[in-house]
């Protein structure tokens, strides 16, 4: 069911349909792994009845990643203790408030990789979030539950956040359309942070048409006076089937980068991953350091290990990472003086199994997602089908979310 189909239902029909789809799609264990909070049928019915149907998203149900505050719900951010150190807001956060003004209907919250500090969707507290169509494989993370509910067709729309790929990677693994905005956006400022330099708000849809509708409602842009100019770069250590499929899909959007541009891009992006890891470690510790010692045993051990990495970062390394950040952003500005968009693969592999969720796969993923993160660029992710039936995706990276590039490519790509 796309946006239009949901908008045709009565409030009671829509509320019962959400609950029916949750029960149909997820086992009890996977419901716990994917959904942090599901509103009651009566609550959802009342929200559908109150939705201003004349608004662009009127009557469209959505789940919110559980690091966005929504009135009447607790924010855990994938942890077991966050409300003990950070009381939940009694009012809607900025992102939820904006959506409700557009008529969207909140139905619940989704699970995530603890504190959004991971790209695999694993969570020892609530369970690993599995791909709805391929049990045993991950949805990706950290916006794991949001990708799962959209991929399972429970709702046509869900909110995520993206710091180093947390919308882009689950969108690629689950065959979804994903969109991330830019750091510092008002819709992310009051959410629970991972790394404010890189944190962005974002969302998922199943269809291009629904993604186009969210862009029109939330990030309106003017039509471009000409066809956007871009190029494709096969970047990172890709599985052969991923490289071939992404190359074929990208050919519908643009041409491969010429030799000179390719060399410049690879050189400009080379230091991004190390700088990203350093800055995130420093900023995440700033959020957690006041309570980390008291709650040491309640962290996911892998998340704790990443947080503890801060103690290996010297002041010189921190300064060097900030220097790389400035250089990469200057590089992007130079690129956009010639081009309107760049296309990169969104994942180096299809959705991995639990056994394949290793540090190596995390590094391979971040290698291709961190250039846009350091640039602070908005990114549209589109799905790419693989011969196996699994999926990967393409990142379409532009200068500005309101430039019209994304709408044009969704319309004609």
Folded structure, characterized:
With 413 residues, the chain is α/β, with parallel strands linked by helices. It has one domain: Amidase signature (AS) enzymes (Alpha-Beta Complex). 43% of the residues lie in helices and 14% in strands. The strands form 2 sheets. Strands 4-6-5-10-11-9-7-8 form an 8-stranded mixed sheet, sandwiched between helices. It is globular, with a radius of gyration of 20 Å. The chain starts with a helix and ends with a helix. The mean pLDDT is 97.
Secondary-structure map with pairings?
Elements lengths: L2 H5 L3 H15 L2 H7 E4 L2 H10 L10 E5 L16 H4 L8 H8 L3 E6 L33 H8 L5 E6 L5 H7 L2 E4 L5 H4 L10 E6 L2 H11 L11 E3 L7 H11 L4 E2 L2 H11 L2 H21 L8 H8 L6 H21 L5 E5 L13 H17 L3 E7 L5 E8 L6 H8 L1
Parallel strand pairs: 2-3, 7-8, 7-9
Antiparallel strand pairs: 1-3, 4-6, 5-6, 5-10, 9-11, 10-11
Helix pairs in contact: 2-4, 13-15, 13-16
